[in-house]
Amino acid sequence: MKKTDYDLIIVGGGMVGASLACALKNSPLKIAIIEAVPYTADKQPSYDDRAIAISYGSQRIFESIGIWSKLVQYSTPILAIHISDRGHFGSTRLSAKDEQVPALGQVILARSVGSVLQQQLAQQANLTLHCPASIQSLEQYDSHVRLTLDNEQILTARCLVVADGGRSTVRQQLGLSTHSHDYQQTAIIANISPERPHQNRAFERFTDSGPLALLPMADNRCSLVWTVNSGDEIALLALNDADFLVQLQSCFGYRLGELKQVGARQSYPLHLVQSDQPVQHRIVLIGNAAHTLHPVAGQGFNLGLRDVAALAEVLHDHADDCGGARALHEYTQWRTADQDNVITITNSLVQLFSQSNPIVGHLRGAALSATNALPPLKHWMAAKSMGLARKQPRLGRGLKL
Ligand SMILES: Cc1cc2nc3c(=O)[nH]c(=O)nc-3n(C[C@H](O)[C@H](O)[C@H](O)COP(=O)(O)OP(=O)(O)OC[C@H]3O[C@@H](n4cnc5c(N)ncnc54)[C@H](O)[C@@H]3O)c2cc1C
Fold first, then answer.
1. The domain spanning residue 152 has which CATH number?
2. Which residues line ligand 1 (CB under 6 A)?
3. How much distance in Å is there from the Cα of 288 to the middle of ligand 1?
4. Whose CA is nearest to atom 31 of ligand 1?
5. Does the residue 266 lie in any domain?
């Protein structure tokens, strides 16, 4: 049996795992990615047709990694965000101009992020891609981990990063516990063509069943993420296009005029999954494997990418023992507060905005109006959504590792 030694092995070459490998392209680390599903497969679960709102902070990380120049052709800038609550008075508007940034964020299809990341990985001299492959067994030693793949290859590494998504099989193989919450909500995604120009505005509208977002895309299309109570998606997905648009219009209203066309619809059941032990001896869980979030605030990938930037910096700075206790302790100290904060805010938003109680509804309206009237509060909210509220890693400040 062939045995290969690496410094770092990343299990899962999805958006987060592949970003970590790219971030470390100039490091002295010898890296492997183990990915179960070929990147060209239709069913590749990370790189599908969902549109991802990438924060300004994430854009800066991609710039430092050197791939923003390739991603920009697929992206649409968000110049303003309009937040409202269906059936209640009050709304908030955030704008790139007020925040003095070129854009509050960018909208990119996960599929496009995938194609750019793959091109980058293919050129990376310090990286070996094992794909399709998955781990059959895993042993932890003091100085390394040892993996046996399903093709019988044996790999060792001083650090193992687990980025195999929300249903992480490696997390299960390691016997790591999670706490999870089923939101009893399902997100329906589709592309929508509205009558009026979107003018690069993103809309977040809270409704009784859950939040509804329309994100600006090229050719005046919008990407819809419509959260409904689980079970209700069955009827909505079965409707013909015209009837679906009637239902959507009644929830969203006429801010973009008549909603004219809808593309293929897909659905995602929504859960919170949070790993209780995201850092283990020589092992780190990142991305959805560490925390799978509700898409209400568009923070899942952005949080994952901030973890990537911090982890890349720590692994690079401790290249001599990249999975050692000092390196992983530093990473944990750095990232736990942001992770907990984003999870708490996301959960609170889902709970607050999924209640049909009229008193809560009036309070929400008042809160949105108050936010709109208070520039410091608005600025704080914008900084949070742009991913700029905390200590930035070197890659988030436009620096090299
Ligand atoms: C509807 C919707 C809208 C969203 N919108 C936004 C948004 O606007 N902004 C935002 O920041 N986030 C958003 N998110 C969240 C975002 O999609 C996730 O945070 C992101 O996809 C997580 O990436 P990941 O690489 O951690 O996991 P995944 O994307 O799940 O990738 C995991 C990878 O691991 C591979 N894998 C799985 N098992 C194994 C194994 N055993 N061995 C090897 N490889 C394996 C898979 O094939 C895959 O390539 C949204 C999510 C949803 C559902």
1. 3.50.50.60
2. 11-17, 34-37, 45-46, 50, 52-53, 134, 163-166, 169-170, 187, 189, 225, 268, 287-288, 295, 298-302, 304
3. 6
4. 14
5. no
For the stretch 222-240, pLDDT in tens is: 999 999 999 999 999 999 9
Report pLDDT digits (tens) over 47-92.
999 999 999 899 999 999 999 999 999 999 999 999 887 766 667 8
Relative to beta strand 76-78, strand 105-109 is antiparallel
φ, ψ of residue 157 in degrees (nearest 5): -155, 155
Kindly report the protein residue whose alpha carbon is nearest to atom 29 of ligand 1: 46
Give how far Cα 299 sits from Cα of 53, 158, 377, Å. 8, 30, 19
Contact 259, 121 (CB under 8 A): no
Residue to mutate, 50, 302, 311, ligand 1, most ligand atoms under 8 Å from C-beta: 50
In a domain, 314, yes or no: yes
**Which residues span the domain enclosing 10?**
3-179+271-397
DSSP strand E in 250-371: where?
Answer: 259-262, 266-275, 279-280, 283-285, 291-292
Residue 189 maps to a domain: no
The conformation of residue 257, written as its DSSP 8-state character, comes to B
Structural domains counted in the chain: 1
